[in-house]
Amino acid sequence: MKKTYRDFCVRDWQPQDREAAAAVISSVLAEYGLGWEPLGADRDVLEVENFYQNRGGAFWVAETGGEIVGTGAYYPIHRGPKAVEIRKIYLRPWVRGQGLGKFLLQELETAITRAGFQEIWLETTSVMVEAIGLYESSDYIQTTGVETARCDRVYVKSLSHLESLPDNPSPNSHFLPPPIQSFKMLKSTQKNRSFP
Fold first, then answer.
1. pLDDT by residue (tens digit) across 180-194?
2. pTM of the model as a whole
3. Cα–Cα distance, 110 to 126 (Å, whole number)
4. Among the four 21, 43, 58, 66, which has the fewest Cβ within 10 Å?
5. Rounded CA separation 121/154 (Å)
6. Class of 2-158 in CATH
7. Contact 48, 14 (CB under 8 A)
8. Domain ranges of the chain
9. What is the DSSP letter of 148?
């Protein structure tokens, strides 16, 4: 994966990115009063090969001017049919508000859909108000079943209603959401669905 968004390059994580990616995540966690957990919830950042690359997932970094300023990732989980969890969408404060978070989320969703997954899960915490706004405006439905100790919110989004994306879309093509009426029906169905 290598894509450009404004002045940012979003690309696959490489082993030489390990410390810089960890620094982005730990600094954002500290900004929100949350602890860095290298032996717990953040162990995956230090072992990207085992948690993402060797399990059919992906871990990306966003950089500008040669500096890593953001991260985003996903890996398969057993929470639902063909499910993945989006993880580690973190951005340095000075690059927020430019649409990079939304771009990362949309690109992750596109990659996940192309890989044949049908559900996306993600966890966050109430103090990350901007992230919650992004997820809710991107049609993620809050549900129950938080698994990460520092998180108090879990969201899910079903992709089973989407048609397959083309393998090689033209550079100017964009993934379009389902019509609003169909989406509202899907959303009300998901709200009434119980998740493990």
1. 333 333 444 444 444
2. 0.81
3. 26
4. 66
5. 7
6. alpha beta
7. no
8. 2-158
9. S
